[in-house]
């Protein structure tokens, strides 16, 4: 579920990027064709601007548990700090130890984030830190 703090954003629907069938928000892949990339359409209720975003996730069994090993989010995103639309490309690649975050303001073209580093370095800091078993 997408929950937006200011409630300006209305979540519309997510579709399979291949066969265009509706993919549920909680599903990682399309039930019809198995494609793992979905396009998400959102709109801002006051301006009716439609935005498109695609997300993909790859899971693998690690120690008998299904874990997300690859995550990508590309497209339009609402950046709350600046209260404006931005372009986002975020990749969390646990298999190749890569973390990429690129965010650019769509209006001003200002680059807000431009990070590429080993994932374990990223996890070692701040909120992404997780307790080891
Ligand atoms: Zn499909």
Summarize the model shown.
This protein is mainly β. The protein has 1 helix and 7 strands. Zinc ion is lined by residues 16, 18-19, 21, 30, 32-33, 35.
Protein model, in words:
The protein has 133 residues and is mostly beta strands. The protein has one domain. It is built from one helix and seven strands. The chain has a seven-stranded antiparallel sheet. A hairpin with a 5-residue loop joins strand 2 and strand 3. The radius of gyration is 16 Å and the shape is flat. The protein starts with 8 loop residues before the first strand and ends in a 10-residue tail after the last helix. The N terminus and C terminus are likely disordered. The structure holds zinc ion (ZN).
Count of spatially separate domains: 1
Order of helices and strands: EEEEEEEH
Poorly predicted spans? 1-7, 128-133
Biggest sheet, in brief? 7 strands, antiparallel
Strand content: over 45%
Within the largest sheet, what's the order of strands? 1-2-3-4-5-6-7
Mean of the pLDDT scores? Answer: 80
Look at the helices and sheets and give the structural class: mainly beta
> Could you give the distance between the termini?
28 Å
Small molecules held by this entry: zinc ion
Instruction: Give Rg in angstroms.
Output: 16 Å
Q: What fraction, in percent, of the residue positions are helical?
A: under 10%
Number of strands: 7
| Anisotropy-based shape | flat
Report the total helices. 1
